[in-house]
Amino acid sequence: MNFIPYGKQSIDKDDIESVVETLKSDFLTTGPKVKEFEEAIASYCGAKYCVAVTNGTGALHLTSLVLLKKGDRVLTTPNSFLATSNSILYIDAKPIFVDIAKDGNIDLDLCEEELKKDNSIKAIYSVAFSGNMVNQEKLKYLKEKYGILILEDNAHAIGAVYNGIKAGSCINSDCSIFSFHPVKHLTTGEGGAITTNSKEIYEKILTLRGHGMVKTPNMKPWEYEMRELGFNYRITDIQCALGISQLKKLDNFINKRVEIAKKYDKAFERTIVKPLYTYNGKSSYHLYVVQVDFTKLNISKEKLFIKMKEKNIGLQLHYIPINKQPYYKSLGYGDEKTPIMDNYYRECFSLPMFPKLSDKEQSYVIASLREVLNG
Ligand SMILES: Cc1ncc(COP(=O)(O)O)c(C=O)c1O
């Protein structure tokens, strides 16, 4: 069996052809493919506006520049990739880590407790962990009742639908971001996007993506004005050509992921391997996360990872609590009361999940996991 990673892109002939076509065209960057990709993402999600950028981290940075200012307090989750809360730090704002609920997402009831105690909280940065959107009714309620800003980090969740609400539609949030890294649902190599329904936010993000530079029709032909400090977070037409082609196949990719999840669900029924959640009709399954109580076994998690690697299977762990990272500890974080996250971190790991994972490979992963855990 060849090595099976936890995640991997699916690139076909049509993807390659679209990229080659763009390579032969007049524009490698700032050309028509960028706009086409942005419009396709906005339309897929049902949002009014989309800005495509270099990566998900850039999307978070630009959004934070618009939503936050120095000193703002932001509720966020320890169960994410570093970039979510790093983007709050980029602005010299203050992340406040709230424990997770049993589904791995930020606990919105605990968020409400924080909001009741502290009326200076500016925003919630939530993450649709593993592809499973946060409770949208509760998000709406918190936004309306406490007048806070909401950023949905949907890096894991393009294509997810929660009671008719699509990830990235920003029905109950100010902005949403995506990542198009190769392990995600669709890829542009590196890439990301922001969606919003606010024209004002959209225009600010567009300007900040390109150095804070503005060019208006009444200016002289060579003129441009830098009105604020921006960045170069432009994505190329080459990447967007790949993204447009990938987006056409997104629903098929998700169907394949759901099939794999159902097979895993069935295989682990009534075993010590507990899926973070079983099929709920909502998740777009970027990850398939399971939990095992290692205190009841003769094998440690470290040994499990090593033994599975020997069998050519790449497990992964999502995530080490962000607040426990050395840099965050140096800022005074790490001692928050997050018992659910702490227990989850002890027990969790992610199994291979990507559209091209064959039936045979799925069965091999299941059998190998059983064997190693029981051995
Ligand atoms: C939840 C989450 N947010 C943000 C990011 C950052 O995205 P990128 O790697 O495209 O910068 C990631 C990437 O893994 C992620 O998983």
Present the secondary structure layout:
Layout: H1 13-23, H2 32-45, E1 49-53, H3 56-67, E2 73-76, H4 83-90, E3 94-97, H5 108-117, E4 121-127, H6 136-146, E5 149-153, E6 161-162, E7 165-166, E8 175-179, E9 192-196, H7 199-209, E10 213-214, E11 225-226, H8 237-247, H9 250-267, E12 274-275, E13 288-291, H10 301-310, H11 326-330, H12 339-347, E14 348-351, H13 359-374
Parallel strand pairs: 2-3, 2-4, 4-5, 5-8
Antiparallel strand pairs: 1-9, 6-7, 8-9, 10-11, 12-13, 13-14
Helix pairs in contact: 1-8, 2-8, 3-4, 3-7, 5-6
The protein binds pyridoxal-5'-phosphate.
Task: Tell me the strand order in the biggest sheet.
Answer: 1-9-8-5-4-2-3
Report the biggest beta sheet as strand number plus sense, adding barrel if it closes. 7 strands, mixed
Low-confidence stretches: none
Structure ligands: pyridoxal-5'-phosphate
Rg result: 21 Å
Average pLDDT score:
98
| Estimated structural class | alpha/beta
- Specify the overall morphology: globular
| Number of E strands | 14
Portion of residues within helices: 25-40%
Whole-Å distance between the termini?
Answer: 20 Å
